[in-house]
Target: Cholesterol oxidase
Amino acid sequence: MALGIRPVLVDDQHMTPHLTRRQLMGAAALQTAAVLGFTRVGLSSAHAVEPPAAPHAPAVVIGSGYGAAVAALRLGLAGVPTLVLEMGRLWDTAGPDGKVFCPTITPDRRSMWFRTRTEAPLSTFLWLDVVNRRIDPYPGVLDRVNYGDMSVYVGRGVGGGSLVNGGMAVTPPRPYFSEVLPGVDAEAMYGTYFPRARRMLGVNEVDRSWFESTPWYRFSRVSRTHAARAGLGTVFVPNVYDFDYMRREAAGEVPRSALAGEVIYGNNHGKRSLDRTYLAAALATGRVTVETMSRVRALRPANTGGTGGAGGYVLTVERLDLSGRVTAVDEITTGRLFLGAGSLGTTELLLRARETGALPDLDPEVGRGWGHNGNVMTARANHLWDTVGAQQSTMPVLGIDDWNNPTHPVFAEIAPLPMGLEHWISLYLAITKNPERGHFTYDAATDSARLRWTRDQNEPSVAAARSLFDRINRANGTIHRYDLFGGNRKFADDFTYHPLGGCVLGRATDGYGRAKGHPGLYVVDGSLVPGSIGVNPFVTITALAERNMERIVQEDILG
Ligand code: FAE
Model:
């Protein structure tokens, strides 16, 4: 059903990696709101006292990561007043040290989501517990959701994962994309939506001659040489970090971020995170408002007579303060609800709605088809003469590409380990092809979703990573490091950065992310991708959201 609102005509074809005037207006709104301490951000927030929360919004987007940001922009451009609800905070206010985000080496409360101690991916060095720090509980930017045998790292705040990720902006190999999502027209994806996503995200590439000469990428060049000795090729990987800025960091012209070890707890400079791209553009439409520290807890149909949601939806929203206390619980109604809370968040909300009887007819596929994109971290110990350098940029730009290996396909990002001293370690995040899938069950006692994933399901991933890195070690006379991941393990297979699936496209939803049998209910994030995509996932999540939103706006909103 059309909302009867005229679309705002904007041609995004000409948006460049640099902020446009419209994006700058949105970014300014974000910044002003942050300075004034608002939890409600719109274009007018710089001038108003904080207005009361609206009990009704024509469209609501839950979360503010990649899928959510695309949804907010496309709804805003279509003229639909849209409310974005994000459980984390807006990351634009400097702390006492003058910085928005805390240092990686000396993390403080800004680092992690309500923890008393950090939980970094690499927990030890030389088996010593020297990495993690005691911190005060606070809505920090990185969360680690622990589910027994598998833990999942996610970003919290306006921009979701874009605030904490490594910025690697990789388009998957087309044959694998078609294998994973056979129902999606690859021609349209590779001709239109991937290029659109890359343009909007501000994807750029490292200058090759600078890469070959700078000390900041010595660690990548060393790993490339070692891979080549094993007959393996590497590829350059694009990124959303501004490489011109990075070169100026190296020249000492601007404050350092990627060259100061910043990444998993946020980048103070250089990174084109979503608050500077899609979300800034969304706010600049004047139709989009973001409310932070607002956690959606439950959803139900507005029209209690029917279960399908034809009359819209009611959301229960918990307003959090900086201590994590729920200060208010509001109900917001909406005609159209877009779930962009990420693979874990969206799946939990829909599973809870189905299992508590709020939306009992949600498809049985909700909660199924989850995977960790085959993530395994591992590290090698180099010879003393093979120094990786004390200076390391946190933004990876090279990957070992063995994806066409018939038995053990692997795409391994050459990851930095910026400790400010020479450590002779080569670190990798291997993305492997793992056919295993997990599923979520609803636990009524805790009112939460539980991931069912057992350690033995990692075996195909570990076997693939072992095969690749044993080969590299053999060719170079090197060995694995055992001291970095706890428990003398060579392969860290107990956590992932790439949660995917839970509400898979074409199974839990129709071919465009519409929840089956539930008008006005849409899934827009990484939960649509069935567990694996073979490369780092955010470009795919963004491009898929662009494809789906184009159709939804045309047919359901303007049609
Ligand atoms: P996501 O970005 O996770 O956003 C979900 C948002 O929803 C978050 O802001 C949540 O706080 C919010 N939320 C959740 N539940 C609720 C609720 N109930 N109410 C209100 N708000 C809620 O979703 N990917 C790459 O492609 N390249 C990389 O280099 C890369 N590096 C990574 C490094 C790290 C440390 C991490 C953690 C991830 C990395 N990723 C990388 C993965 C990437 O960030 C991830 O796939 C996307 O962020 C997922 O996008 P979604 O839109 O699904």
